[in-house]
Design goal:
Layout lengths: L6 H15 L3 H14 L4 H13 L3 H14 L5 H12 L3 H14 L4 H17 L2 H21 L5 H13 L2 H14 L4 H13 L5 H11 L4 H5 L1 H4 L22
């Protein structure tokens, strides 16, 4: 599967991408829906609809579009990797990991699938008994290493390693991995949010000022906003998303 868009669908795809890049994902999705009304089996439009639904935080809709795309292109790993992301964000990390592993069966070099496997496995390790945690952390590390190899200039790999360090309690290594991630992409939301998570896990006095700084620079950061409720319980109006709940299972990245 090459991802090439034939005929009239190419025009819809290009216009929708332009709207997305302008920060108008809802309008872009409306346009894609029009294209799908003419050709409901166009896999590239289904994939774009998936990513737009993820941007709009409609994870059930994203999973539906990704499932349709995977059915139309059973040899293409990307729809399954996106399905994994949608399931994780919908609080189904086990289902997300299953979809990511299916994607890797099709394409062992699908970086997003490795990322989802690593993240889901780290979340599983956080909840696992100590006797089982070591094996899960080893598995998560292997996935994060593959992410770094496949996305060498991006923050995702070292930031995922830093998240695994939190679960493992390896704090010097956590700091080193966060530094590597932010050196690659200084404004990467995932890296910044993992850094905040690490401060919170250590009950650091730096959590509050760093949270304020993140909100000043990125007021649209969903994870940072969500931390307003548990960090500032008397200021419930600070964020509309709600607390992070138990562990890392609500991960907005």
């Amino acid at each position: 599967m090459t991802g090439e868009v034939p005929g009239a669908a190419a025009q819809v795809f290009a216009r929708a991408e332009a709207l997305r890049d302008l920060g108008r994902p809802a309008e872009a999705l409306g346009l894609v829906r029009q294209g799908l009304a003419s050709d409901p089996h166009d896999v590239t439009l289904l994939v774009l609809a998936t990513t737009l639904s993820l941007a709009l935080e409609d994870y059930a809709q994203a999973a539906d579009f990704a499932t349709q795309a995977a059915a139309q292109a059973p040899g293409w790993a990307l729809p399954l990797a996106l399905l994994a992301q949608a399931r994780r964000l919908a609080d189904d990390p086990a289902g997300g990991k299953q979809a990511a592993q299916a994607a890797l069966h099709l394409d062992p070099d699908e970086a997003l699938a490795h990322f989802e496997v690593g993240l889901a496995t780290a979340l599983e390790a956080e909840q696992a008994p100590l006797w089982h945690r070591r094996r899960l952390l080893t598995e998560a590390r292997a996935a994060a290493s593959r992410v770094e190899a496949l996305w060498p200039g991006q923050a995702d790999g070292p930031a995922l390693q830093a998240l695994i360090d939190i679960v493992a309690g390896h704090w010097p290594q956590h700091e080193a991995n966060i530094a590597r991630a932010l050196e690659r992409e200084p404004d990467d939301s995932f890296a910044h949010n993992v850094r905040l998570l690490g401060l919170q896990a250590r009950h650091s006095g730096e959590t509050v000022p760093q949270l304020y700084e993140r909100l000043r620079s990125r007021p649209d950061d969903v994870f940072a906003r969500s931390q307003c409720v548990p960090t500032f319980p008397s200021r419930a109006g600070c964020g509309s998303i709600g607390g992070a709940g138990g562990g890392f299972f609500h991960c907005w990245w």
